[in-house]
């Protein structure tokens, strides 16, 4: 059975130095890596995979394993190091896959965008067990991600105006009230996500997205088609955000990419910039701040003449997060000031805003800027100077989110952020008290992102200051009340 995991000829073999480097740094033994590959294979239904230490040794010696092992190892090493470790980074090759589960360099055409969203959302609904669809995907990073996204700015070739034939199924035409209802349903899904986290209604959003692609495949007027593409873009972005929130990172990236394609077809550049900001946040989470910065600059450039001040403020705040994680204090502070000034302009202008940007409130602005200073403190070797800059801004964010019943996940994340600030200031008791408060909020939402940050914060307290009875009790309650990797539904 061990032979089912390998491939390649003897003539092709030479030691795989890239895989060997990652393997040595991981600290795993050959047996441990084999066990993890087998366990992940079983989770995704590939029960024919049965790897052992001799097979791992042959991979290190240059043997090329067959799919799905390269993608499984990409995911395992990415999780181990907290950053994107692509299949190519491991010196491995992947087999050709269908467009719905392959990379992010997709054709920028309307009909193919509809087909790809339809196929991917259907696959997600059918194979929605945690890890199944996600392990059939790989995360893109670096030029493989940035260069295809830059095509968002390339104008779509003009198509000669042709009077469409009268459709046989006139019932396929949507009325204005029906479109209004679809848009209001998307707003409702967004509210649910903010209140309850990404794990509670993800499947419902994916199902609604699939229904919208069905409508796009029917004869519609040009104006209706544009509105449907915008709805599809918002739903795909939300499906990506929810997937990111529950830890399905490759799935999230795929939805973000498809959302950007749909936003382009809908002619909505500000919405496209918002989608790129979500992709940027994911790259920061995955330890790729340089990619995050590229995505944010692409978003800013593409929407510079049409985004509202609130959207521009959000983009500046994300730019600050990227610079902070790159360890660039002066550029971080400049972006923070630009975010604050532009947000003040938004309040003064008081112009109509799309629903997707209304989340960016004073609380959110303070939360983002505080996290920028906090991240800068960690990158700068736990700098007390930057931690002291973060504290009053984070306190203000916590104060405002405590009054906001609609954004409970953000409240929990900022309580945890405040706990990490106290940890930087060597105040473990305050850190634990805030973590305990965050646990109470986290129980009300389904967010693996919140749960993971809470676990990491408590682990840091234990590592730096040791355990006491209160901390042991809190850790036990966390394990009971927030089990790891709850299934996304």
TrEMBL record:
InterPro entries from the UniProt entry: TPR-like_helical_dom_sf
Record-given protein name: NsdA
Species of provenance: Streptomyces polyasparticus
């Amino acid at each position: 059975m061990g032979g089912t995991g390998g491939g390649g000829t003897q003539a092709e073999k030479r030691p795989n130095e890239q895989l060997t480097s990652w393997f040595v740094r991981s600290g795993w033994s050959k047996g441990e890596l084999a066990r993890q590959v087998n366990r992940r294979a079983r989770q995704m239904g590939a029960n024919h995979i049965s790897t052992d230490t001799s097979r791992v040794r042959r991979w290190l010696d240059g043997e090329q394993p067959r799919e799905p092992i390269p993608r499984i190892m990409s995911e395992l090493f990415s999780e181990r190091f907290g950053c994107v470790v692509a299949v190519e980074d491991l010196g491995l090759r992947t087999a050709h896959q269908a467009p719905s589960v392959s990379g992010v360099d997709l054709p920028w055409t309307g009909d193919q965008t509809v087909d790809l969203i339809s196929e991917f959302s259907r696959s997600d609904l059918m194979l929605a067990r945690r890890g199944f669809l996600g392990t059939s995907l790989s995360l893109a990073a670096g030029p493989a991600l940035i260069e295809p996204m830059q095509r968002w700015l390339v104008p779509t070739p003009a198509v000669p105006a042709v009077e469409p034939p009268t459709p046989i199924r006139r019932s396929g035409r949507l009325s204005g009230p029906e479109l209004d209802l679809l848009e209001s349903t998307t707003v409702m899904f967004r509210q649910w996500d903010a209140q309850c986290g990404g794990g509670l209604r993800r499947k419902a959003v994916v199902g609604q997205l699939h229904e919208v692609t069905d409508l796009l495949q029917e004869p519609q007027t040009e104006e209706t088609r544009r509105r449907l593409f915008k709805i599809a873009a918002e739903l795909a972005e939300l499906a990506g955000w929810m997937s990111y929130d529950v830890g399905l990172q490759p799935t999230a990236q795929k939805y973000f990419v498809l959302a950007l394609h749909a936003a382009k077809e809908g002619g909505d550049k500000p919405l496209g910039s918002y989608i790129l900001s979500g992709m940027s946040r994911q790259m920061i989470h995955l330890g790729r701040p340089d990619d995050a910065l590229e995505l944010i600059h692409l978003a800013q450039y593409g929407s510079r003449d049409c985004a509202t001040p609130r959207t521009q403020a959000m983009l500046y705040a994300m730019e600050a997060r990227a610079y902070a994680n790159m360890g660039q204090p002066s550029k971080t502070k400049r972006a923070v000031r630009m975010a604050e000034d532009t947000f003040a302009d938004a309040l003064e202008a008081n112009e109509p805003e799309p629903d997707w940007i209304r989340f960016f409130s004073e609380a959110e602005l303070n939360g983002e800027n505080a996290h920028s200073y906090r991240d800068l403190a960690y990158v700068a070797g736990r700098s007390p100077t930057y931690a002291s800059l973060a504290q009053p801004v984070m306190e203000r964010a916590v104060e405002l989110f405590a009054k906001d019943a609609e954004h409970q996940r953000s409240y929990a994340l900022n309580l945890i952020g405040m706990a990490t600030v106290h940890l930087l200031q060597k105040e473990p008791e305050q850190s634990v008290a805030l973590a305990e408060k965050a646990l109470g909020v986290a129980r009300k939402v389904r967010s693996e992102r919140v749960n993971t940050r809470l676990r990491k914060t408590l682990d840091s307290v234990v590592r730096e200051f040791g355990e006491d009875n209160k901390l042991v009790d809190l850790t036990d309650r966390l394990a009971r009340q927030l089990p790891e990797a709850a299934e996304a539904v």
